[in-house]
Amino acid sequence: MPHSSAGPEIERLITLMARLPGLGPRSARRAALHLLRKKEQLMVPLGEALGEAARQIKPCSECGNIDVNDPCAICAAPGRDQQRICVVEQVGDLWALERAGAYRGRYHVLGGVLSALDGVRPEDLHIGKLVERAADDGICEVILALNANVYGQTTSHYIHDVLKDCAVQITSIARGVPVGGELDYLDDGTLTAALKARKLL
Prior knowledge:
8 helices, 5-stranded mixed sheet, two-stranded antiparallel ribbon, 42% helix, Helicase, Ruva Protein, domain 3, alpha/beta
């Protein structure tokens, strides 16, 4: 094992940062050194912000978004279309659609997608809650806005099957979203066009 000149506290910081998406051990080490160099301007406020977020932010019991309030600001907003639910994989996808500004209805965050390889089963996702919400008399459409890969498509087909007895229209966003693409990385124009060109399943 190579000798490290950093103390255990710094090594712990680097190890934790390396778990973040997009950061490997080298990137985490550079980021940690940058934080330590900018301790007062960056590291201390970041630590306080992380602590406050950990204490106050919670999942919305209605849609699965994260917010300091439950229900979240989107669910509580009076001007939104209450008849439509847009189903997304993760909170980041919800944020991407909100950023595009093309959709003003309600959301449902699944918390992942079905994957036999990773052992993710229907009961591991928020599909039961979606069925409950779709059965509400006020809901007329469920929009499936899952990522355009094999896992997203498998999950969309499963949801379509479990919702077939509900009196709702089930649509999918158009595949202006590239196959293999992820919503969080798409530009606003592509997301807007995909939502407008959604089709019946």
